[in-house]
Write a structure and sequence with these properties.
By secondary structure, this protein is mainly β. The protein has two domains: about 350 residues, Neuraminidase, CATH 2.120.10.30; about 200 residues, no CATH class. Helices cover about 10% and strands about 35% of the residues. Strand 21 and strand 22 form a beta hairpin. The relative contact order is 0.11.
């Protein structure tokens, strides 16, 4: 049985179920606690908030740390496998995100959690005994810990809205995480052992501050802030009482997110975002250190005893895991396609492996939950044609879709309505579009003619209920569509941690913004739902913008989604129309 301890609310149980191969551990170096008098850290004036019921603005005493070995729970028999460790990923499986264990060579993708709710941001404790994560099992996002040796699960935060992205102090006694306060993301520090003590604020509310990353030596926390407009990486120095927060990675031409420390604390990796997201790293001990570009990706994680950096590679309609060697000309392993949306992940070697095995050996009822592989889709290239059918209660110029996919659209619409609280897909700019009477009209690669495409309504964009963020892949621009949740209490969506695209910036009389089709705007407040990721779960793919989108708004193609199911555009057309009908338009 899994024992649970909750602070305040009662919420449904989870089963942590996994099937681990016989992976054992080797000795590793950790961080211990030194019982000496501790320095006191106070808030600088610009970041001093008013007291609230959920956090206090008192000084923040933190334990100093000195290296000491961490105990292992099991005899090591396979040094190589233990050193390579494994990943814990937050990945979508069906309707929800769950935690998965994985290693590209040593361990198959295996689901660790179950329940009709979501998990995100797994963080493995320094001694490998505990997982921290956030979950919305109460209906809202809170931070939890799970002790793998005892099965004890604890709710750490009491945010009553949103708390997520936990990071461990190197002695395992503290957690820093982000939460939403007065419309802004702030960072709190909370004891991982004394939950009765209110959390303490690391940052104020004048700007968004998020993605905390605790340094291995214990006295610094890197985080992301938008206080100067663009996303920058700053450092909080816990050894000083004043002027504690200082910029580390900044640029007037790029944004930076997802800082992560090397295992020895000498270097930092991060995501740099310009036209696309890439991984960079730098040795930050000393001045004038060179920044090294590793390659495409986001959310870097140091691994393999500082010999490499893993990253998430987001493609236009998919997710891949890749790992760069310490030598930027080499890969630890090439990009590996993952079968669901991955939002975050962590990695560790050593005792985490044996502790997971111990957890399984305690006797968890039921069978392991292993991700079901995606179905192999064979394009239908037969001469048997489908037809267009009307969609009930749909407002569109031609309210019909191909009869092979209409049920998929209706299921997506119904679930989205339940999630958002409003019927975004009840009105479409276009659904299926009939062949034009004029055979000079270009129809090639327009998926609306196939009956397998939709063009969503863009009126919510003007009304502030829809936002888009720009994503570039290999020179092509795509858009991620965000929809505003009707309930702004944390029960739907998440706070955004990235700037959205502002098309209106073209009219600011700035030549660069005009030629670039706009510019990145501020991070919006509130809770937002990722429609692009949601639609992809039902098979609806977004399309790239045309090359002239910067000066011709319809060419952005941000509203177009197609349910291709492995078909080419011509194969999809041939499912609807005869050769005689198509030969007027196609050579």
């Amino acid at each position: 049985m899994i024992r649970r301890l909750h602070c305040g609310k009662k919420f449904p149980p989870i089963l942590i179920i996994l099937s681990i191969l016989s992976i054992l551990v080797v000795a590793c170096t950790g961080i211990g606690v030194e019982a000496q008098s501790q320095p006191t850290v106070t808030m600088p004036a610009e970041d001093t908030p008013q007291p609230t019921s959920t956090s206090k603005e008192l000084s923040l005493p933190m334990p100093s740390v000195t290296p000491s070995p961490l105990p292992l729970t099991q005899e090591t028999t396979d040094t190589k496998i233990a050193d390579e460790g494994y990943f814990v990923l937050a990945m979508r499986d069906g309707e929800h995100h769950h935690l998965f264990a994985y290693h590209p060579v040593n361990y198959p993708l295996t689901r660790l959690t179950t329940g009709e709710f979501d998990y995100d941001y797994p963080a493995i404790s320094p001694d490998g005994s505990t997982l921290a994560f956030c979950a919305n099992s109460t209906g809202k996002w809170e931070v939890y810990t799970l002790n793998l040796l005892t099965g004890l699960e604890v709710q750490v935060s009491q945010a009553d809205g949103y708390a997520c992205a936990p990071t461990w102090s190197p002695d395992g006694l503290w957690l820093a995480y982000e939460t939403l306060a007065d419309g802004k993301l702030i960072i709190l520090v909370h004891s991982a052992t004394d939950r009765a003590t209110p959390p303490m604020r690391l940052t104020g509310r004048a700007s968004n501050n998020f993605d905390p990353a605790w340094s291995p030596e214990g006295r610094k926390i890197a985080f992301v802030t938008d206080r100067n407009g663009r996303l920058e990486i700053w450092l909080a120095d816990l050894n000083v009482a004043e002027n504690r927060l200082n910029p580390l990675i900044t640029s007037s031409e790029a944004s930076f997110t997802s800082p992560d420390w090397s295992l020895d604390g000498q270097s930092l990796a991060w995501s740099k975002i310009t036209d696309q997201s890439v991984i960079e790293r730098r040795n930050i001990k000393g001045s004038g250190q060179e920044t090294i570009l590793l390659g495409a990706g986001s959310k870097p994680i140091w691994m393999i005893n500082d010999q490499g950096t893993a990253a998430l590679l987001v493609t236009p309609n998919g997710y891949e895991l890749i790992a760069y060697h310490d030598n930027p000309t080499r890969l630890l392993f090439p990009a590996i396609h993952l079968p669901g949306e991955v939002t975050s992940f962590d990695w560790q070697s050593g005792s985490i492996v044996s502790n997971m095995a111990t957890f399984v050996e305690r006797g968890i009822s039921g069978d392991p939950f292993t991700l079901v592989p995606e179905e192999s889709i064979t394009p239908n290239t037969t001469s048997e044609r489908s037809s267009l059918v009307s969609i009930y209660d749909l407002k569109a110029p031609e309210a019909s879709l191909a009869d092979t996919i209409d049920d998929r659209f209706m299921a997506m619409r119904e679930e989205l309505n339940q999630e958002l609280g409003w019927d975004f897909l009840g009105i479409l700019q276009s659904a299926a579009t009939s062949l034009p009477a004029d055979d000079e009209v270009a129809i090639h690669n327009n998926w609306l003619y196939t009956g397998r495409g939709i063009s969503v309504n863009l009126d919510p964009l003007d009304a502030g209920w829809m936002l888009v963020s720009r994503e570039d892949f290999t020179g092509r621009t795509f858009w991620r569509v965000w929809l505003k949740c009707m309930a702004q209490d944390g029960t739907c969506g998440i706070p955004l941690k990235e700037p959205v695209w502002d098309f209106n910036a073209r009219s600011n009389n700035e030549m660069d913004e005009y030629e670039n089709g706009g510019d990145t705007g501020a991070i919006p407040e509130g809770y937002w739902f990722d429609f692009t990721a949601f639609a992809l779960r039902y098979g609806w793919e977004r399309l790239p913008a045309a090359s002239n989108w910067r000066n011709y708004f319809p060419a952005t193609n941000m509203s177009i989604f197609a349910l291709k199911e492995g078909l080419t555009w011509q194969q999809a057309m041939e499912q609807i129309y005869s050769s005689n009908e198509l030969e007027r338009f196609l050579p």
